[in-house]
Amino acid sequence: MRDEDILKYIPRGRKNARSRNIIAKEAGVSERVFRDIVNRLNRQSVYDLIIADQNRGGYFLPKFPEDEEYCNTYINQTFSRANKEKTKALAMKRKLKKQMERHREMPGQMMLDLEENDG
Fold first, then answer.
1. Can you give the residue range of the structural domain that contains 14?
2. What is the DSSP-derived secondary structure letter of residue 59?
3. CB 14 within 8 A of CB 62
4. Among 8-12, 63-67, 74-78, 106-110, which is the least confidently predicted range?
5. What is the domain-level CATH number for residue 11?
6. Is position 105 within any domain?
7. If we measure between CA atoms, which residue out of 34, 65, 66, 64 comes closest to residue 52?
């Protein structure tokens, strides 16, 4: 199945949103494959935007103009989530750097191996 073939299984309009489980079954793919396809298609500008409606628990292709406001909200939430993840990743990177600095060997420091060696 080509990625774009999944579009025929996704309904148009927020009020018609359908669950990932149902769409994946109809398309004959796993839910994980379905999510991967949706992510790939949403990164390509030639295809319609595919929205995962958190409130109604389903996926849909926007119907304009009635879905425009929801689409903008969805995009803003996605940016917000991405910024929070970036902030978290940067903090984790700083923590790791500090921890690694504390645990590095210092020049002239002796290391004591307490593990028994069989050889």
1. 3-83
2. E
3. yes
4. 106-110
5. 1.10.10.10
6. no
7. 34
